[in-house]
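task queued by scheduler; priority normal; single chain, no ligands, no partner chains; default sampling; output format set to C-alpha cells
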Amino acid sequence: MGVTGPPGPVMDRDEVDRALARLGAEHEAIETSLFALQDHAGRRLLEGARLTGTTQERWAAADQAITLLWTYFDAYTAALRSAREIRARRRWSSREDLADLTELLRGESVTVAGSGPSTPASLTGPARLSDRFTLADLVERMNDLYASSLDMVVAADAVWSALPARIDLLAAELGRTRQLAHSVGVRPGEHPSGDDLERITHALTRLREDVVSDPLAYWRSGTGSSAPGGGRPDTTAYDREAQALEEVRREIDAVLTVRQDAEVRLGRLRDVLSRADRTLAEARSARGEVLAKIAAFEVPAVSGPPTALQEQLATAAEYRRSAQWHRLSPLLETLETRAEDELLRARESLTAVTQPLAVRAELRGRLDAYKAKVARLGFAEDPLLVERYDAARRMLWSAPCDLRAAEDAVLRYQRAAADVLVPRVPDQGGPADRRGES
C-alpha cells in the first residue's frame, strides 16, 4: 500500500492524473488484500470457534479492527470515486476543479462517521463521533489495522494447522499403546506405566481443547520478524507428552520382550538353581569325606539350598501362566542376579570344603616328586631318606590324616633330600666328597 504526498500548492492536471493513477492502483491492491483477509481460512475459523483466553481477547479486538478496516476502505473508495468524477467533468480541468481535487487528494477531506464510541480507543486513538483523514493518513491507518489483524489470523491459523493434527496422531499412537499395554497386563493402578498412560490421555485431551479454544496461547512470536504472523507454534507441551509416551512405549517393549523370552529365561533360571543345588550337595558329601579323612583341620559347614529362591521361581512361573508380564519382568531380573550369586556361593562353599583334600593331594604329589628325583640320581636306598619317606607316606595315606604333621614330615624329607642332592663344597686342597657329587 502506497502513501500520497504532503499537502501543497494547487496541483496541475498532470499531477492530478498521476495521483489518481497511483491511488487507483493502491485501491486495487488494498481491495485484493482485504478480500484475501476476508477469505482467509484462519479468519473463518476464528469467526466460528468458541474462543477463550488470549485468543478471545485478541480476536474481539481484531474483529472490530477488520470491521473498521472495511469502513475506512469504503470511505477511501468514495473519496477516490468523487475525485474521478470531478476529473471526468471536462478534458481540461478548470482552476476550481483543480483546487477541489487538490483538497480532496491532499487535504483532510475524508470523514469517517460512527468511528468513535463503537470503536476501541486503542485502534483509532481517543474516541470521537467522527474522524477526518487525508487519503495518506487513511492508507496508513488501513496498513496498520491490516497488519495487526493479519498477524493475529495467521498466528491462530498456524497453530490450528500444526498442533491439533499432531495431537490427533499422537492420540492414535497412544490408543495403540494402551491396547498393547492392556494385553501384557500394564493397567492403571497396577503398573506405573499404566498410570502414565492414563495421565498422558488426560493431558492430550486437555491440550487439544486448549489449542482449539485458545491457539494464541501456543504461539511463539518471532523476535524481530517483520513478516505477517512472524513466529511459530509453541510445541513444548506436545513434545513433553510425546516424550512421556515414548518412554512408556519402551517400557511396554521391554515387557513384550519378557513375554517372548519368558520360557527360555525361566528354563535358564531352573538350570542355574539346579546346578547350585547339585554343587551344594557335592559340598555336603565332600565335607563328610573330609571329616573322615582329615584331622586337626577346620572344615566349614555347608548350608542348604535357599527355599526363598525356589518360591520366587514358582511365583515367576505362575506370573507367566497368568500372563502377568509386567510383574514377571522385574522378578526375572532379580531372580537372574540372585541365581548367579547362589551358584557362585555354592562353588565357593565346595572349594572351601575340599581345600584339605587339595592340600593333602599337593603334599602327596610333592613327596612322590622328590622320591622320583632321588631315585633318578641313585640315592633311593639312602637309609635316612627311606626312613623319612616312609614316615611321611604313612601320615599322608592314613585316615584320618593330620595335615600339619604330614606337612612337617614332607618338609623333613625334602630337607634330607636336599642335603643328599646338593653337592658339598670340598675342603681347600682336598678331594671332593663323592657323596656330594652329582
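post-processing summary
- The beta strands are 110-113, 130-133, 219-221, 231-233, 294-295, 401-402.
- The radius of gyration is 51 Å.
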